[in-house]
What does this fold into?
Amino acid sequence: MPELKRLHADHASAVLTFELVNRTYFAASISDRGDDFFDQFTDRYKASLAEQEAGSCAFYVLVAEDGSVLGRFNLYDFEDGTANLGYRVAEQVAGRGVATATVRELCRIATARHGLRTLRAATSHNNAPSQKVLTKAGFVPVGPAGPADLGGKSGTWYQRDLQS
It folds into this structure.
């Protein structure tokens, strides 16, 4: 059974493999990270861990029993009880409810562990699977997301109030 874990230094190799193996798949629906991301992966990874340690974000990985990464789920830009959510899952588990179940779990974690009250996520108009995940996980559309929010694409911001 896959397990959602807080990003740790020991995950670096598995995260890089996840990003490389799924790069073409991701680029079909979201902006490609570019070669610089991979060339500077170690430095960027360490910077992410430092940012997480500072408390302005929380990064999670969905780890399979064999230690491989099946997904990345990030809470970032913490401000006044609100954070943005970003996620991506491996092609091998796409369409199986993995992203939806994990986003729901992360909503619980966001409240319990991070004291968040609201999550926001932007998705491009052409990323129907992500729109479906967000809707199934209780998010509602709240307005347009511009190219600056989505790596050059246009889309929609979704939001979920985490209070019961």
About this structure: The radius of gyration is 15 Å. The first strand starts at residue 3 and ends at 6. The helical segments are 12-21, 23-27, 35-39, 41-54, 98-112, 128-136.
